[in-house]
Structure formats: C-alpha cells, structure tokens
Amino acid sequence: xxxxxxxxxxxxxxxxxxxxxxxxxxxxxxxxxxxxxxxxxxxxxxxxxxxxxxxxxxxxxxxxxxxxxxxxxxxxxxxxxxxxxxxxxxxxxxxxxxxxxxxxxxxxxxxxxxxxx
Length: 117
Prior knowledge:
Elements (H helix, E strand, L loop, with lengths): L1 E4 L5 H10 L6 E7 L4 H8 L9 E4 L15 E4 L8 H9 L8 E3 L12
Parallel strand pairs: 1-2, 2-3, 3-4, 4-5
C-alpha cells in the first residue's frame, strides 16, 4: 500500500486506524510526507504496533513509523524534496531493541559543496 501523508489532526488518526485494520498488510510505502509530519505522526501512532509490516519504504520525515513496526525486515529511506537528516531516522531505528532489520537502504545525498571536516 502506498500513501501520501498530510498534516491534519483528523487524518493521521484515521490513517493509523486504517493500518490497524489491515492484518495482512506486509509492505507500506509512504510516498510523500510534509517536512513537519514527524511530531503529529508520532502523536497519532500512540502505542499501536504493526507487527505485520515487513517492508517499510518511507521518507525521513515519517521516521516515527520505525518504532511501531517491530518486525520490519527491509527499511528503505527515500528522499523526496527534502534534505536527509539521518540522526532522527537512525535514532528511531536504533531505539527498536528487538529490531529484525536485515536490509537498510539510505541514499547518500549531497547538497552544495561538501565539507572537509
């Protein structure tokens, strides 16, 4: 299933409810998420779990989903119209102590002149 997330206090809880009602959903792709999606998505997710999701394809702004898909095996981070900030993305993945991730794909992106640090 591919979805495009919008910022809305009413839409995100409906999205989470939809995911809960799909026990056979094994692949979820977030096609696009606004740059300010993380905090509202985190709030909407609450304490729900999606153990049925095995493949997660998402932009960095949808990183809260990583903590709620405990049995995910393939994680593909896609960059669409935003710069990649991997700190929160990787931190969210690392916080899942029982992670079963076998494959993690994060594109290397360069914006501007590389730093020599």
